[in-house]
Amino acid sequence: MGEVELSCRAYVKMYLHTCLFPRCSINGLLLSSSPTGGAVCVTDCVPLLHSHLPLAPITQLALTQVDVWCSQTQQRIVGYYQANACVSDNNPTPCALKVADKIAEQFDNPVLLMVRKTEVKLFYRLSLTCWFNLDIFLLLLDGSKMSPDYRVPPIVLYERKDSRWILKDKHTIMLRQWEETRAIASQMMESGDHTLLVDFDSHLDDITKDWTNQKLNTKIEELASPANGNI
Amino acid sequence: MASVAEMYDVGWEEMRDKLRKWREDNYRNSEQIVDVGEELISEHASKLGDDIWIIYEQVMIAALDCSRDDLALTCLQELRKQFPDSHRVKRLTGMRLEALERYDEANKHYDAILQDDPTNTAARKRKISILKAQGKSTEAIRELNEYLEMTHPQLYQAYCFLCRFHSYGKAAFCLEELMMINPHNHLYCEQYAEVKYTQGGLENLELSRKYFAQALRLNNRNMRALFGLYMSASHIAASPKVSAKVKKDNMKYAAWAATQINRAYKLAGRGTKENKCSMKTVEEMLESMQITMS
């Protein structure tokens, strides 16, 4: 499997989804609108659930609906992301593997992403402090109390080899303009935009809510500079 | 205008007994309760003894239903004089504020009750209905889940824990217990149906369909139950192991569910451009599933 590229829009929405339900396990689907072959470019994501992930009916329903929507909008489901409720546990659960396997039936090189909550939380603390007090921000840096990885996207990638999922080298995940993406994600979190995010679960609670998150997509586009490309 | 006593030729005792019967059987015939109750209170209060307090409560709630705030306030004031510190009366105060759509004030009363007594389920339920009335469905669901955790914490936690570890048989057992304790809760029915569906196999699918249907009977706006009914019925109808009659019945259920789903989405999609996308997606999805079924 070659490189995986993650667009700003996909990353920001995954991040906001994780922040919206900090005490829950959450998951979602990764989509691509680029042609097959070469690097897998994840251009969008659809947040799915924040409760009872291992139960089948709603997951099946969501997969079917997203599939239909994709065919209407020239996109494909290319992967799956999950963040576990338990902050210290970043391993894919059996249900994550099941869904990812299902996707593998339709798409050759599916992507399985686990979001690392510890680093997401760190993110939030960091961005909060640097908003209020620059000194504290510097102190934290010097104090080396954070993981040296904070500058790296808090995600772990798995790829499918011989019907098993194995950890993939971090360096094959590409995010163009990472600093800017990170800044957009923090900014939206600060201004409370994560509450605008609708996942499939919330849509079922109130079907007037839009799980394709068009409004949020527009906001992200407005914040991203033209140089970030591939939105 | 003729009084109730004159119109129906009843004495005050019969009126009082009627009110009691309606109370015990949980009737919600608010207009009748207001008519009978108002007359009873204004003309025979002294004869009612201690019954009067529960009658004040009953009439007050009925008065709110009929938008008779004047009567509701009168009853409430009498109750407040008699029971100044009562949580029960506080809840009634909150209910009146709800009827007047003064939700923030109502919530303050309920929060005060919950501060004193965090296990007060009545206050919690009222808070949930306020969220529903304000259209804040996600918050309402969240509060409801917290309420479930509060009322039957061990069982519910056990259920979530077991689900996470794919121990569906035991998870189902926890839900069965919860359903026995609280048979009117549509969420338990719907969760049970989901677990059965996940377990798979024809028998479990049929159970799942029955429980999705039950959840809908308890709350006909539960979208998960509606979709669940559609999917379980479709799968049963598509199974080669079922008789022609079972196939036909399940196709009927699935068709009914599909109509309801389409209608719900049409209603939701009115006026907003972005929801037209969900509507189209659902329509197409239902159509495509029907093709594979036949």
From TrEMBL, chain A:
It comes from the Eukaryota. GO terms for cellular component: EMC complex. Coiled coil: none annotated. InterPro entries: EMC8/9 (IPR005366). Pfam families: UPF0172. This is MPN domain-containing protein. The lineage of its organism: Eukaryota, Metazoa, Chordata, Craniata, Vertebrata.
From TrEMBL, chain B:
Keywords: Endoplasmic reticulum, Membrane, Repeat, TPR repeat. Signal peptide: none annotated. Residues 90-196 form the EMC2 TPR-like domain. It is found in: Endoplasmic reticulum membrane. It is a peripheral membrane protein. It comes from the Eukaryota. InterPro entries: EMC2-like, TPR-like_helical_dom_sf, TPR_EMC2. Part of the endoplasmic reticulum membrane protein complex (EMC) that enables the energy-independent insertion into endoplasmic reticulum membranes of newly synthesized membrane proteins. Belongs to the EMC2 family. PANTHER family: TETRATRICOPEPTIDE REPEAT PROTEIN. This is ER membrane protein complex subunit 2. It comes from Astatotilapia calliptera.
